[in-house]
Amino acid sequence: MSRLIEITQQNQASHRELLDWLQTEQNIPKLGQKLENFASLDRDQFVQEVRARKPKTESLSPKGLKELREAYQDYAPQIQARNAEALTLEIQLSDLVNQAYGLTPEEIDLMWKTAPPRMPIPRPF
Fold this sequence. Notes:
Blueprint: H1 2-25, H2 32-36, H3 43-53, H4 62-100, H5 105-113
């Protein structure tokens, strides 16, 4: 459980750092949902979204493009790796809770069938 909290804190700090950099150094006033969740994008999608969000009067220089790619590489892979680790831990925690309640496979299946559409973890198969 403490590792999940640590992962969340690290990801939040990384997001804040990169998003602050985008707003201040890349002059992007409104980030939008895609940039706010930049780690879900690949590097080219990230660059494309930054271009789309920059004021029309500003273009990216080769140096600016390199900076963007480096910033993405410095932050996104680590966030993605931590997210994968968090998902594994959340699934383990879910399994432990099911065991603690003594749920049968049929009860677990029923629980997943009636779960709301936005569950934090995917349904196991």
